[in-house]
Amino acid sequence: MLQLTTTPHDLGPDFLQDQHGTFALLRETGPVREILTPQGQRMWMVTRYQEAREALTDPALSKDIHTARARFDPYTLALAGLDIGGALSEHLLNSDPPEHTRLRRHIGRAFTSRRVRELRPRIEQVAATLLDDLAALGEADLLSVYAFPLPITIICDLLGVPKEDQDDFRSWSTSMARLDSEQAGAAAMALAGYLGQLVAAKRAAPGDDLLSDLVTAGDNPLNDREMLAMAFLLLVAGHETTVNLIGNAVLALHRNPEQRDLLRARPDLLPGAVEEFLRYDGPITLATVRFALRGTEVGGVPIPEGDFVLVSLAGANRDEDRFPHAEDLRVDQDATGHLAFGHGAHHCVGAPLARLEAEIAIGALLARFPDLTVVGDPAQLRWRGAMLLHGLETLPVRI
User: One Pfam annotation, family name (predicted)?
Assistant: First the structure.
């Protein structure tokens, strides 16, 4: 058993602007460290690779929302980010096997590698259209005109969300990702109302889309609450990761021009480069919170029953013991095994789609605008105020 520092590490309000520096410091002090979140809540944080894999598969660390509601008061749950949206919280990421297995089975068929490959022509078409828009502007926020509309268009196509509703959805999703719990709660209520109406519409008049397939499934179908939570998770997770992945990758290439030039000269490196972007500065900072059903250990560190645990995917992906030269971006190295999409039963079901969207989006951008540059001082760019997600507020570019 490891000897622990008794004082929790205070992440502080500026943590999100230098998360990699914080995780490097925490890795030096040990694999697991008690921390204070920006909201002042004590939790355990895992920042080393091997211990992160252990924690992500430890059955003593639960994500089940029903058990959490029985154990913790609503205020504590809200601070931990477990129950921000009531019924919206009853989804895959807040469940354990066998319930998680049942829920995941319903959507697994939609995100197989074969079905995702079939989306390539549509993704390429959307990317080309958006790049035409960028060309007409000359200078713009790359997130607004490219990184956001591409994945939101694709996931809304898959789910059957009308195009005219996509702007509202973006506003709600952005608000829910921020640290302001009041703003996030209001956005969650608005999104829940919208999704309830959308699910009802699909039940009344099914179409050729994933939500319609889910509501008409004859074998052990989802109930209304499960449908609502599933729709929420698919919409939010189905675009937020890709938006951040594209934006973070473009910024990383701008800061590492020799890697950008290599990727332009060797487009065959793109699939592997996407894995490196995921490892180096991935779209998700932390896995969603877990809590100890009983006392357990992670990396020799005792975790008392009832304590909350955060696994730093970003921290694990820069662990030098697993990835030599982890602080460097190298688009031609083997980055497989990274934890950007999690590990174990909760590995992201939409990972094949996010990978394909990023490969097409980044490749098309480099080919179309080889001289694209980030406007202003990259050091002045701000990261969004979201504990779990890692993405920029804006990314101004000039072609």
Answer: p450
